[in-house]
Write a structure and sequence with these properties.
It contains 17 helices and no strands. By secondary structure, the protein is mostly helical. It folds into two domains: 121 residues, no CATH class; 203 residues, no CATH class. The structure holds zinc ion (2 copies). One zinc ion binds next to helix 15.
Length: 382
Amino acid sequence: MAAKRGFWDNLMRDLEAPVAARGFGTGWFSGFFAILLAAVGLCFVAALRWPALAAMPELDVVRSWSGLRPLIHATLLGAYALALVSLMLRPRKALGFAALILALGATILGGAAVQPHETHDWGIFFGIDFFAVNMIATGLMFAPLERVFPRQAQQRLFRSEWREDLFYFLVSSMMVQVITFLALAPSSYVNARFGWLDSAQSAVGSLPWVVQFALAMVLTDLAQYWFHRLFHTVPFLWGFHAVHHSAKTMDWLAGARMHFAEIILLRGITSLPLLTLGFAPSVMQAYVGMVYVYASLVHANVRGDFDRLGKFIVTPRFHHWHHGIEPEAVDKNFAIHFPLLDRLFGTYHFPEGRWPTGYGVPEKVPDGYLAQLQYPFVRKQS
Ligand SMILES: [Zn+2]
Ligand SMILES: [Zn+2]
């Protein structure tokens, strides 16, 4: 056990190594990309081997695509090659060994030639395919963006607490079916009880696609605004939401930090208009996909004041003010799409050209996923 922990610590220390020990030629980049490729390869091999681990029927297209197996093969070969490069270049071997272990694991499970192996039904829990796709898509979009247009130039991808936030990202992707299932409950209740919704549904369904999409944004944001504000107002609910605000560094990954109970409640409530008013399924899918990317964007460590644009549409600086540590930022900017809502309800704060000096909350929220999971139930309410 001690040896295992030692390896893990070494790996983390190496990932977070000082910039000088990460330069080109130190074996850091090869080690990092070896781990990334090996992890992605492992996710896909696992999703093919145990189809029950895969959550998204929509991703069947990916799984049945004839190019997937050659791609997995190339990914694992790339992982092995880069791991070897890293092992040769780098005095510390943790990165290279970690990549080797992951790639070997994928190979032992069958590699690119993996065959489905039906075991017990794992139920509705896992979405390993969704995690892999989500991670690659958002990571590929935002990691380079934050390097090219950084707000805090010295901030790194592997800043403090990145592990917690990656774990949050993992949990919410892996639990995508549980969350969807639980969040659907309120809308199925509403749909079953309120017959008068039928006429509203046919009216909404007959609107042009673009209008439906815009309407979906407005109605969801309206529901989200008040729900979000409630979580800032009711002390017991704040305990859950304080977890989201406990991030002291803002970047695309920080947005994933959210208490499990809050995710379920938030999705259950904010999806109510979307699921009960007769929107076209393609509108709902497009909206949900957009929200995933948009949520990462508004937390991202990207510069740009957007003084004018930020009055009409939520920009990173607008939401960064929601997370600001200074007193002027407290209980401001609840909207996630339209700042107009904050102007209407008196919570708008968008000082020209200025950013918060720090992020977080005055109270001490503990570190780590499990401690934060318990936090709402153990915190002392003042
Ligand atoms: Zn908040
Ligand atoms: Zn936020």
